[in-house]
Specification:
heterodimer, A: about 230 residues, alpha/beta, Rossmann fold, 7-stranded parallel sheet, B: about 250 residues, 3 domains, 6-stranded mixed sheet, 4-stranded antiparallel sheet, 10 strands, globular, binds guanosine-5'-triphosphate, binds magnesium ion
Chain lengths: ~230, ~250
Amino acid sequence: MLRFVIVTGTPSSGKTSVMLHTIRQLLRKNVVVAACKIDCLETSDDERYRRLGIPVAVGLSDYICPDHFYVANLEEIEHWARDEEKAEIVVIETAGLCHRCAPAVNGCLSVCVVDNLSGIDTPKKVGPMLSTADIVVITKGDIVSQAEREVFRHKVETLNPRARLIPINGLTGQGSLRLYQEIIRYPAMETISEKELRYPMPAAICSYCAGETIIGKNYQMGNVKKVDFGRKY
Amino acid sequence: MLEKISILGGNDKAGAAEPIKWLDVRTGEVLAVVGPTGSGKTQLISDIEQYASGDTPTGRSILVNEQPADKYAESRKIKHLVAEVSQNMNFVIDMSIEEFLLMHARIRSIDNPGKLVEEVLEVSNKLAGEPLSNTDNLTALSGGQSRALMVADVALISNAPIVLIDEIENAGIDRLKALEFLTGNGKVVLVVTHDPTLMLLASNRVVMKNGGMNKYLPTSGSEREILVQLTNIEKEVSLLRNRLRDGETI
Ligand SMILES: Nc1nc2c(ncn2[C@@H]2O[C@H](COP(=O)(O)OP(=O)(O)OP(=O)(O)O)[C@@H](O)[C@H]2O)c(=O)[nH]1
Ligand SMILES: [Mg+2]
């Protein structure tokens, strides 16, 4: 039995900082935690997780979309965390680059991390990653005004009224206790096989996916969509 | 209506029970949180913000109207029980003061937001040294103007009944008036401060030591007299500053 905690969110929103504080609380209760970071080309997050003394894996998607890569590896991550590392909880930190994808899977606790600094229009831009999350963590409240915190929170609530909102200071860990409690309360599951994504991933099968680099119609094949300049906004 | 919050003592950094076991702060009251750096002032504030219920490192619990803080907030659908103003906070949204305040007021479902926005601006102008105007961009405000606007917004628009003020002594705003506005609007106010004037402006103070609430002291009559002297000295300093700035010799 394993609990999946899937952490999504915009780049540099504080995903790792928040999870480090939260995992520390889990470790204090002797829960066995493993962490897996998915990214495209490079990450140093594994070093930060490793300093907690927990098993850490890194998946770099390289030329593949990091979210597709992540989904295609969920069973392997489960096997590694549950069977090899005997973990009770696996934290998967996704790359969260393209806001079209939502890595949330039914039966997994999905945590989306957004920060107050990113501006009040960000929650809307983040799209399904935020609207399918069980928990939305809002960071960097320590450096913006109370008024902006309230407005930002309202925007998040409008987009995902179902989620639990948890403000956390990624620097001090203030607020991470509530995330810890949500994780502890979340049911473990038998296996992730056959579970379903909450939101389908986009079709991405054009010539550029396959390595094409030249601009121009003659080089485009497959799923190609064009800008509609006549559209009224 | 919020009547009071209570802080139930836990333990200090050494694990010993805190000398103060139960501390009430009532609406309209200002509690100063004082003590040397590292004495646990921030942790106390953090316990209140997190609605601690014996689960934080200090083991403290926070009650609102004698009810656990999280239950109180949940049953009344209060999203922000605590508002905070500190000198690390800035406005980061690229918008005019008026646009933003209107947006904030609408979110709070306030009737006649236009009128309230004017009031907020009026209060900000009483607090800030330099005048603010409706059309000023938030990100272009000076430190003093920002803090003044934050206090005015927290007093009039924000729904949070508990206000935490963290070291705004250097923020360049009229601190006395700021506290008056906040408490006058039915808030419980806690001020973390190293500034003797602010300490004595408070109705009571809690002295932190080694992570624990060590002493709870009311501001005495003779301390109030000292406060008057302090305020006079400050006025004098401020006059001197202005004269020097204006090119006078003194
Ligand atoms: N002031 C402040 N800074 C924060 C907070 N949370 C995170 N940071 C800082 O924001 C930066 C990014 O934090 P990370 O935890 O690395 O963010 P991330 O989302 O894991 O970043 P990537 O994995 O690279 O996308 C770091 O410099 C953190 O110290 C916060 O609540 N307040
Ligand atoms: Mg990270």
